[in-house]
Amino acid sequence: MLKIENLHAEIDGKAILNGLTLEVGAGEIHAIMGPNGAGKSTLAYVLGGRPGYEVTDGSVTFDGRDLLDMEPDERAAAGLFLGFQYPVEIPGVSNVQFLRTALNAQRRTRGEAEISAGDFLRVTREQADALGISMDMMKRNVNVGFSGGEKKRNEMVQMGLLDPRLAVLDETDSGLDIDALRVVGEGINRIMRAPDKAVLLITHYQRLLDIVQPNRVHILAGGRIVRSGGPELALQLEREGYREVAA
User: Domain ABC transporter: where (predicted)?
Assistant: First the structure.
């Protein structure tokens, strides 16, 4: 589903990704771990199409299409979802307004009919209930006044509504307590664990992987994948640290 070959990228003239190669198949969940400054968030931003990140070499295909040749909204409509380490607040825009606008924009791009107000509220309530978000919170401005855990659960509601084929989640477990971590991890499993979907999960910690249980774990250091393995690789990292395992 996702194929990255020899990817080089920089920001403000500084090279961050240095020949990263990775392939994620349909039905798979891959975790990326690595020390601070290794390029994990840069990889997520490049895949999402964030401005300011320049790809200088390599290729990325998503379902056989040239991902790098697509605008960010085209990537989203094609089924890519980018989850942020720090979800932003959007004062003056309610969650339900934001989500319905985003969902209908994607449906129009795919040539589908817009979702009715009644159907939208029904599926929104289903997703919010599953993630412990009240409809009162869904009517509030996007992430304004939300705790860190509430922002992450709200982002999972967004993912559930948009129903992507590929989710790139940048440190979704950042700032979560034990209960919120379980809710978010179970949300990832419920929404994305399917034979026609895939997840690229960026994390620092084993604890989320205990819930999500990835197919593969990759260590990113110096802007490239330096080691790959099964879930046991994350356990080794917990015991020994990056210096020993990624050497």
Answer: 2-247
